[in-house]
């Protein structure tokens, strides 16, 4: 997975439809999420498309499997995960993910339908990180 900084560098040089294409490309780069993990328990509420996020842990590092049934939404998920993927749980718990995503100005770049679920994705990730960091 690309780093958030690498993605931001590329994103800043693009406009309009090119940014959509980049998001779609990012979504294609996600690790495959096995169908049995796409359950009601891993479904992110409040998203306009179906989004599933499944946390895994290796040592103290978090790794998320994710998928969506919409290409651009899947790219947004990939962007959110780029901020936290394979980081220590405590680092993710302490991170301001919303601030990390601000350079992408998603609220102004995408429709409100496409961005409405981002706070719920972030909340799920933070909740997982806090729970694991506390153990």
UniProtKB/TrEMBL annotation:
Pfam family, one: SufE
Listed Gene3D superfamilies: 3.90.1010.10
Protein's UniProt name: SufE family protein
Fe-S metabolism associated domain residues: 15-127
InterPro entries: Fe-S_metab-assoc_dom
Organism superkingdom: Bacteria
Matches recorded under SUPFAM superfamilies: SufE/NifU (SSF82649)
Family the entry assigns: Belongs to the SufE family.
């Amino acid at each position: 997975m690309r780093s958030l900084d690498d993605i931001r560098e590329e994103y800043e040089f693009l406009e309009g439809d090119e940014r959509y294409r980049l998001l779609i490309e990012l979504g294609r780069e996600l690790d495959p999420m096995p169908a049995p993990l796409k359950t009601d328990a891993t479904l992110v509420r409040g998203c306009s498309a179906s989004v599933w996020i499944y946390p895994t842990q290796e040592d103290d590092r978090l790794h998320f499997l994710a998928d969506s049934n919409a290409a651009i939404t899947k790219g947004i998920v990939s962007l959110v995960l780029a901020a936290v993927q394979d980081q220590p749980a405590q680092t993710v718990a302490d991170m301001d993910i919303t601030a990390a995503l601000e350079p992408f100005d998603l609220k102004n770049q995408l429709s409100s339908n496409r961005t409405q679920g981002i706070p719920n994705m972030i909340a799920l990730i933070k909740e997982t990180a806090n729970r694991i960091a506390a153990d």
